[in-house]
Amino acid sequence: MAGSATTLATRFQFCALLLLISSTTVLCGNINSNLLRENERSCNKNNKAALFVFGDSLYDPGNNNYISTNTNFQANFWPYGKSFFSEPTGRFSDGRLIPDFICEYAGLQLIPPYLQTGNQHYLYGANFASGGAGALDETNPGLVVNLNTQLNQFKNVATQLAQRLGEEEASALLSRSVYMFSIGVNDYSSTIKGDSKQFRNMIIGNLTSVIKAIYKTGGRKFSFVTLPPLGCFPSIKAQNAGNKTNHGDFCREDLTALVQEHNTAVSKNLEQLEKHLKGFMYSFFDFYTTFYDRMINPTKYGFKNGESACCGSGLYGGVNSCGGMRGIKEYEVCSNSSEYLFFDSVHPSEMAYQQLAKLMWEGSCSVTGPCNLKSFLSL
């Protein structure tokens, strides 16, 4: 009997110990979870805005490093990145891009590619841009992350923020953040199907759908850039050699006209969105005019060459061979890329991006309006 009583008592003590351990584990788990949430809130307690970036190679920090594609849509090889990072990062330039400089001006850390593995909390934003992407799903299908997929990635981030910060704090973060877009160039670079006006309406229609979806999620501040003077890029001029225009160059005037019509239509569309979406604000940067002025007056802005690429081959450096990884191994690269407006046949140099970013950040209404990005972040 005594042995049975001792055994029974021992069992009760053991069960009590298990219950204590279990309760402590649950309590610690809850405490750790709450502490993590409070820490993440305190990381952004100064109410800094985040940047959520969408688009193409002008904004892609290296997302295409992590997808199944080919080297025509990648820049993860030398000499890309040589001027600032001293190694290729996947950015289509010799250094930083516009979003990188905007982060610097806003006092934010550089935003890594969304697809890069690692512990990203997204408190300062996320970059979904993919080199070669267009507003249309049909643009470079299977080789890039199209705009609709980028939208789905953003929705996933918004869900994660709500889980980590709570609905109220996540909603406040999304509403004060800025949503940056650079999209459309690749749609017009591909084959235009059917009537050009109908094609343009499809591009703008898709972009508008994405804007409205982000607005519905809580976004209110949007940044856009006009399409650049694509018809006069080194790659286009090299392809068009022999067809000199009335201006005495090899620009494609038909492509220039399409781009200008697109920019006008986007401007009108943004004005309508501002009227019909309560609280919707936007900044529309005149990339076309500011960049074209640097092409024809390079020395005015500190460049020695405004029409040829620093890295590439052929006329104007317009053959897309920079790095020798795109089917043509032979290429030349200049010694000082800051003297060139273009780094490769279709992408600006870091120096050009820095100048453009500065105008987007604090430029007058004549180049970026109705608000510049600096004023955005103070609202």
Number of helices: 11
Amount of helix: 40-55%
The number of strands is 10
Overall, the morphology is globular
Which value, in Å, is the CA radius of gyration? 25 Å
Proportion of residues in β-strands = 5-15%
Low-confidence stretches: 1-45
CATH class of the domain at 29-38 and 47-232 and 253-289 and 353-378: Alpha Beta
Adjacency order of strands in the biggest sheet: 2-1-3-4-5-10
Q: Which structural class best describes the helix and strand composition?
A: alpha/beta
CATH superfamily descriptor of the domain at 29-38 and 47-232 and 253-289 and 353-378 = SGNH hydrolase
CATH architecture of the domain at 29-38 and 47-232 and 253-289 and 353-378: 3-Layer(aba) Sandwich
Query: What do we call the CATH topology of the domain at 29-38 and 47-232 and 253-289 and 353-378?
Result: Rossmann fold
Let me know the largest β-sheet: 6 strands, mixed
